[in-house]
Amino acid sequence: MQQPITAPKNAVIYKLLRQPRTPMTTVASLGVHILDVLGRPVTRIPDGQNIDLLEEIRFTVAGTAAGTAVDLAKLGVKVIAMGALGEDYIGDTVVGIMQHYGIDTDCLVRKKAVQTSATMLPIRPNGERPALHVIGANGEFSLDDICWDRLKQVDFAHLGGFYLLPKLDGEPAGQIARFCREHGVRTTMDILGIPREDMLSVVAPSLPYLDYFMPSLDEARMICGLRDWRDVCKFFLNQGARACVFKMGANGSVYADQNGVILRMPAFKVRVVDTTGCGDAYCAGFIAGLGMGWDIEQSMRLATAASALVATALGSDAGIVNLEQTIEFMNTAETLPMTE
To answer: Is residue 123 one of the residues assigned to a domain?
Structure first.
């Protein structure tokens, strides 16, 4: 692999992007759909039945498919949501929020006798987010629920939430990725890495058909057992992925592909309120950039900007207003040093 190319700290080469083009891309965001209940700042769980007062509580649509869908819609992308919800008020809330952002929800299926997936997130003062989660309807989402006719017509398919999709993990996910490759649909995959003994088996059938494998670096390390990001990239490229894009928190992100191209992108400096959904926003920004015809480096920078903005407020749908605001931030914000 060649030496990594680090994006410049200034934004001079991006000045041409100050007049953004509205993306005309259509994306199917397929996988985990969750309603998050978030509160901040949480410094402890009260003893017994005591009460602590918080500054803010929010409900947001989240998950590696639904959260990405909302951010994509905010960035001007046409989005079709594909996933499973319960026949309950929580599911109604998810649909209502997604429709508010203009997302096509016709391919969301409703499941009987199971609740919509939900998470309680007590957000710590430093932005960390321990989670209490119910898998719910995500655990019932299967190949039979997918709108195949619509999937083959989109430009991108974002596959999100594997390891929390028991009826799609492994070979079924590979069938979806292969279907997309056969129909000329570009694919991105993000995961919700849950430690288990057979982690590679969940994503291995998909990797040969993925254009961009996009977990966090920590999740990728869990799967392959390697530490250095160069070795991790090489591992997943050897498994067949066309490219890897690993999110590295304050250390930015890294891109590597089958042609030997390696790019590093620093993170932007922001006051962190809540890191929920930052990875989803990164995926959304990356897809939106590619959909506008931007190159990989430019798309990584837009992805980094979207991710940073989400960290500035509470919830996975916070921070991003629209494409123009995100590009303005991208062109003016200060970057952090990369230490890894």
So the answer is: yes
In a domain, 340, yes or no: no
* Residue 15 confidence (pLDDT) above 90: no
Write out the H or E segment, with its range, that includes residue 77.
none
pTM: 0.92
Domain holding 195: CATH number?
3.40.1190.20
Contacts of 256 (CB under 8 A, 6+ apart): 1, 233, 234, 237, 243, 244, 262, 263
Structural domains counted in the chain: 1
The Cα–Cα gap between 86 and 114 comes to 6
Looking at the predicted structure, is the pLDDT value of residue 14 above 70?
A: no
Which residues, at least 6 apart from 20, have a Cβ–Cβ distance to it below 8 Å? Answer: 292, 323, 324, 327
Q: 35 is written with which tokens? A: 């309603």
Can you read off the two tokens belonging to residue 40?
Answer: 């901040």
Determine what percent of the chain falls in helix, strand and coil, rounding each to the nearest 5: 35, 25, 40
